[in-house]
Amino acid sequence: MDDLVVARPQGLYCPPGDFYIDPWRPVSHALITHAHGDHLRAGHAHYLTAEPGRQVVQARVGNVALDTLPYGERLVHRGVTVSFHPAGHVLGSAQVRLEHGGRVWVVSGDYKTGPDPTCPPFEPVRCDTFITESTFGLPVFRWAPQQQVFAEIDTWWRANAAAGRASVLYAYAFGKAQRVLAGIDPAIGPIGPIVIHGAMSAMNDAYRASGVALPPTQLVPDTDPADLRRALVLAPPSAQGSPWLKRFGEFSDAFASGWMQLRGTRRRRGLDRGFVLSDHADWPGLLEAITATGAPRVIVTHGYVDPLVRYLAEQGWEAGAFKTEYGDEAEGDPEVTT
Predict the structure, then answer these.
(1) 182 and 304 together in one domain
(2) Hey, which residues does 275 pair with through a beta bridge?
(3) How many CA atoms lie within 13 A of 50 on its CB side?
(4) Distance between CA 72 and CA 50 in Å, rounded?
(5) Which is more confidently placed, 2 or 125?
(6) In DSSP terms, which residues pair with 82 in a beta bridge?
(7) 136: domain CATH number?
(8) CA nearest 83: which of 70, 101, 100?
């Protein structure tokens, strides 16, 4: 029996449904798991995504032919029953469930199994074949409870403010920045303002328009220069070393990323601090998610592919891989290729 999903030069293709999932070349019908740039590309004739992702998809690709489907609601296209289910990765992220001819496949996109105040939690979906990421697919990657990490960020900000220096925290503009904003202690606000890089404005607006509560933020021109020395400053990693930082005077900088788990990463980046906070599943989370699907077959798409495939095969799964172009904007460190 033919597979429900195959890898083509354009992306992951469903032959009976004649559509693609997160294609990286222009196609006529694209189902989108989430709006990170390695999964959401411009140029498709028609897009379908989960309803909670409408605002972030439009913020990324503009006014395109876009339809949305609420989580759990089913749609039949050319005999294939399609539904979206929460992936817990970022706002609007979804797993795509495909049912056809008595078979069920799930394409997970990117996901995490831990809590996140900005999006619904990962929902295990029973299936025959599960297509999974493996961004952090090594046993060394094990995340601490997120509240512990947020408490560390709060303490760092409070100490810096007391010393009269800004706290510059590098975080990806879509997903990580909003998760940090939603997770920090609002009681710290009076210590100093939360200042954001302009690159984060559109995504923050999209989250707020989607009903996600975020604390007040402001841009540098709207902030009293004296207050900048007590501010928590959220900026994309690309801002590190840029002239934009000079306006803050003395500052301490840090990066919020799962890659901070690796020894040497913080040192190579020249950072004062590293906070291990990821929007992807760690090693236990990957295994938990895969096991919860009940799928006897698992296909790995990107990240530490070979180690996960090898482990799963040793544990009795039918395991394989698809070569994809995912990972460019997932949570990559340019010095750590996967």
Answers:
(1) no
(2) 256
(3) 27
(4) 9
(5) 125
(6) 75, 98
(7) 3.60.15.10
(8) 70
CB 74 within 8 A of CB 34: no
**Strand bridging mode 11-14 / 19-21:** antiparallel
The single-letter DSSP state of residue 333 is: B
Q: Which residue is listed with tokens 């021109």?
A: 221
Residue 218 and residue 239 share a domain = yes
pLDDT, average across residues 6-20: 98
Q: Which residue has the tokens 């947020």?
A: 150
Taken in order 51, 66, 109, 37, the sign of the CA dihedral is negative
CB 232 within 8 A of CB 169: yes
The dihedral through the CA atoms of 184, 59, 83, 304 has a sign that is: negative
Handedness of CA 327, 329, 331, 336 (dihedral sign): positive
- Sorted by sequence, the CB contacts under 8 Å of residue 312 that are 6+ apart come out as 290, 298, 300, 319
Q: What is the pLDDT of residues 49-93, one digit of tens each?
A: 999 999 999 999 999 999 999 999 999 999 999 999 999 999 999
Beta strands in 193-335, from DSSP E residues, in sequence order: 194-196, 232-235, 251-256, 273-275, 297-303, 318-321
Please report whether residue 53 resides in a domain. yes
For residue 336, tell me if it sits in a domain. Answer: no
Phi-psi region of 337 (alpha: psi -120 to 50; beta: other; left: phi over 0): beta
Residues 246, 235 contacting (CB under 8 angstroms): no
> Is the model's pTM score more than 0.85?
yes
Q: Which helix (H) or strand (E) holds 285?
A: helix 283-293
- Average pLDDT (215-219) is 96
- Specify whether the CB–CB gap between 158 and 191 falls below 8 A: yes
One domain, residues 260 and 182:
yes
Alpha carbons 215 and 194: distance in angstroms, whole number:
8
Q: Report the interhelical angle of 176-183 vs 146-162 (nearest 10°).
A: 80
Query: In degrees rounded to 5, what are phi and psi of residue 288?
Result: -60, -45
